[in-house]
Amino acid sequence: MTANKHPFKAEVNKILDLMIHSLYSHKEIFLRELISNASDAIDKARYQALTDKSLLEGGEDWKIELIPDKAAGTLTVRDNGIGMTRDEAVEALGTIAHSGTKEFMKLLESREVKDNPELIGQFGVGFYSAFMVADQVSVLTRKAGADAEHAVLWESNADGTYTLEDAEKPTKGTDVILKLKEDAKEYLEEWELRKIVKQYSDFIEYPVVMNVTRSTPDPEDKEKTVSETTEETFNSRKAIWLKDKAEITTEEYNEFYKHISHDFTDPARVIHYRAEGTTEFSALLYLPSKRPFDIFYQDYKIGPTLYVRRVQIMDHCEAMLPTYLRFVRGVVESSDLPLNVSREILQDNKTVTVIKKSLTKKILDTLAEMKKEDMEAYGAFYEQFGRILKEGIHHDFERRETIADLLLFESTKTEPGKKITLAEYVERMSSEQKEIYYITGPDRAAVESSPYLEVFKEKEIEVLIMTDDFDDIIISGLGVYKEKEFQSAIKGDLDLGDGKKEEKQKEFGDLLELMKAELKDLVAAVRVSGRLKDSAVCLVAGEHDLDPKMVKMFQAMGQEVPKGQRVLEVNPDHELIARMKGLFAADKESPRLKEYVGLLYDQALLLEGEAPRNPVAFAKALSKLMAEGAGEN
Ligand SMILES: Nc1ncnc2c1ncn2[C@@H]1O[C@H](COP(=O)(O)OP(=O)(O)OP(=O)(O)O)[C@@H](O)[C@H]1O
To answer: Where does the chain cross the membrane (predicted)?
Structure first.
């Protein structure tokens, strides 16, 4: 036998440290996590045995056993599932299968997790919760189908290392043996274990059993008792999604949600229905109330768990949900699918397409209902998931209007933090207003002080504030809402002024020409502005160009973006522009005029949130002008 010592990966140590030193409440969840892992292992064995009967090793008596041993102070959780090879044990129990390890570590150190350590449940680190109640954890495991002597014993007492040694195990599956801490001895008691299983694992499909010894009076000698040991099942094993709605309590719904999602917060909404007709299926779906930390990662798993005739086929069936509803968790069971479906088959399976359509509709209907009935709850939900839902406008052409009805935005007329729907915006539009105005930017404060809103403020026109990075693409994709076109406040030509724009364009024509000649290819044109009131100039993107925020986002992703030349807009009513016109009339060649044009262009860059072309030259020129100005007084 070879026993090898191995160090844990840093993130495992961190988790263990948190588990042991910060988690004081709900320690009993370790049992839920271990039972859940055992149940997953049986699911896998059962599924793989559909195509390879030898994995059954002669029996289909699936169960999860709890074996308390008071003398040894140990609790064993045993399953007869798929088991692990040596390599699998190293991978599964020594590392954290996670792509965003760095972000994950950051999160672990965050206040939020420190204050609510239960949150670590959502990281998929259930196994390590065993160390909350045990000084030492041993895992004796053998892969289904392997020889008895090809088992492995993994052991650790959370000191930064674990050992691995070869072992023998006559039956397939896994024993997780916990050497309980002094203050965790209650987990050896039948009533305690029964209570925890009932509370957290009642719906587990496989029996969670324990040998229970009862003493009864001896029928032959009333003075004595006889004891009898029987195997009792602690859980009712009802697949909650197949039960009648009326039979299920909110607590049961919530507990099941926590089981499948590893979220500790109750869900925002439950959707439970049965579809009958040509395609029959049951669906139990949840809208979470908190965004999982990994939802924006590439390897985030989308879709409900799929069951076919009570056999779990896959834990995330991505073909059943559009990506913009990836926050939805749940279970779908259909008897119209074959047991041996693969992901490839599911991709273009007719039944799956029908189910996907139905789920999508049901979820969007539920969101609409939630918005109508309880705006506060919907607002809280939107805060967490609105950004994801919005992707649907881009990806689900057919339903983009339904999704548009679900969007919420702040506007220049709402209090900070308060949001309105597009329908509310349109209702509030005056009869002269033809378009839906919106402005994109990094945050509300930046947007509100932007020169692009000057004319809107003056005319008291409401402008929607959009601060998500891809809002501009989403809105361009939507194009129209209730027959009203969208118009960006920072793009394209606007004419909300006093109706004298054309006149002014002529009046200032020569000066504008000179400015364009001076700026050359830096701008596509120089024109009189229909949006400025207080500022002298601003830069404006073309109607169909990307807004500066999108340009920056693509550049940050290392992508080349056609920047599209912008137009410099000039405010003819600004004192400086009037003076420049005077200067131009006196001397077209004036070097000062040229200097001003350059400075104005740099100023426009600054207003857009960019740096001037040459900050040093800009600062020098500005100081020079200030010195001259000071000299005049
Ligand atoms: N009883 C078991 N039988 C077989 N494999 C197991 C068992 N318990 C744990 N494992 C393996 O260890 C891995 C890690 O378990 P852990 O509970 O930490 O996270 P997880 O179950 O993968 O994540 P999640 O809790 O999100 O489902 C599992 O994915 C599985 O591969």
So the answer is: none
Three-state DSSP class for residue 170: coil
CATH at 26 = 3.30.565.10
Q: What angle do CA 512, 517, 518 make, to 5 degrees?
A: 95
Determine the number of helices (DSSP H) and then strands (DSSP E) in the chain. 22, 23
Residue ranges making up the domain that contains 83? 4-233
Query: Per the domain annotation, does 276 fall within a domain?
Result: yes
Biggest CA–CA distance in the chain, Å, is: 128
pLDDT by residue (tens digit) across 167-205? 999 999 999 999 999 999 999 999 999 999 988 788 788
CA distance 342 to 317: 10
Nearest CA to ligand 1 atom 20: 124
Which value does ipTM take for this structure? 0.97
- Same domain for 228 and 245, yes or no, is no
Amino acid identity of residue 387, one-letter, is R
Statement: the pTM of the whole predicted model exceeds 0.80: no
Mutate to test the pocket of ligand 1, among 19, 88, 127 (most ligand atoms within 8 A of CB): 127
According to DSSP, the β-strands at 3-7 and 134-142 are unpaired
Query: 349 and 317 in contact (C-beta within 8 Å)?
Result: no
Instruction: Look at residues 345, 372, 399 and tell me which one is the last residue of a structural domain.
Output: 372
∠ Cα 20 26 27 (to 5°): 40
Ligand 1 geometric centre to CA of 125 (Å): 8
Point out which residues pair with 162 in neighbouring strands. 6
How far apart are the CA of 511 and the centre of ligand 1, in A? 72
Residue whose C-alpha is closest to residue 137's, from 153, 152, 156 = 156
Residues 91 and 213 in one domain: yes
The token duo for 598 is 């350059």
Residues 6+ away with beta carbon under 8 Å from 491: 540, 541, 542, 543, 545, 547
Q: Is 122 annotated as a binding residue?
A: yes
Tell me: do 331 and 244 sit in the same domain. yes
| Integer Cα distance of 153 and 199 in angstroms | 31
Instruction: Using DSSP bridges, classify how beta strands 464-466 and 161-167 pair: parallel, antiparallel or unpaired.
Output: unpaired
Task: For 198-241, write each residue's pLDDT tens digit.
Answer: 887 887 889 999 999 988 888 888 888 888 999 999 998 888 99
